[in-house]
Amino acid sequence: MEEYTVKTADFINVMISTSCESNCIEKRYHKGITVLELKGKLEVITGANAATMKIKVFSKTDELVCELSDGNALLGSYPIDDGMRLHVEDQFLLRKQLDEFQVEKFELSQEEYDKRSDTVRSFLKRNRLGKFDEEEMKKKQVEKEKEEELEKEHMKTITVGSRCQTQVPGQPTRRGAVKFVGSVKFSPGNWVGVQYDEPLGKNDGSVQGVRYFECPPKYGGFVKPLYVQVGDFPEEEINFDDDDEL
């Protein structure tokens, strides 16, 4: 059976729209959930049927990026970034107003949702899948504990001021200096703040109005500890031939 992995960790903030309403709402999901589990969550807030709904991903400029067609795939295995829109289409979609500031939101109560036999949760429960698979859940818990212990030990090797190299899955290797180590407000867990040697980052050491370290714009980034290697990583020199000089 093919294995699916998360390209990037933690959470993603996306906009949710439906085929019968023009307004959107913003939601935050963990990238480690499967598309099937995501449909279960969207079923509750949109009224669509998880078994028949289709989810299309649109960029911030409303260009179609992809369709979440594989129920077993992890949300993080798709090229989804913060601010993108998940558009839910379903022939049985219940009409509702998504703008919670104008009308009361339509949501099934937990008790009503549990009584339904056509939901993702009931399907998972009947077939002992996902969180209802005790053996699989125990395995994931053991793997999580091992990763946390490994990260805890690795954190001891990372100190502010050290030269480092980052190797985030799906991204190029980058060099820089460690500027921050610890917990942050924008995401759970520990993070390492890095000032890159080149403007390959996303910030200036601050995120969502909170400053963690100082560096020029686009030179700062935050990386999970396991993707940071501290050592003798001097700045890479870029040599230009005489023919290339202006």
TrEMBL record:
Protein name: CAP-Gly domain
Residues of the CAP-Gly domain: 182-224
Compartment(s): Cytoplasm
SMART domains xrefs: CAP_GLY
CDD domains the record matches: Ubl_TBCB
PANTHER family on file: DYNACTIN 1-RELATED MICROTUBULE-BINDING, TUBULIN-FOLDING COFACTOR B
Organism (species): Nesidiocoris tenuis
Family annotation (PROSITE patterns): CAP_GLY_1, CAP_GLY_2
Major location category of this protein: cytoplasm
Pfam families: CAP_GLY, Ubiquitin_2
Similarity annotation: Belongs to the TBCB family.
Alphabetical UniProt keywords: Chaperone, Cytoplasm
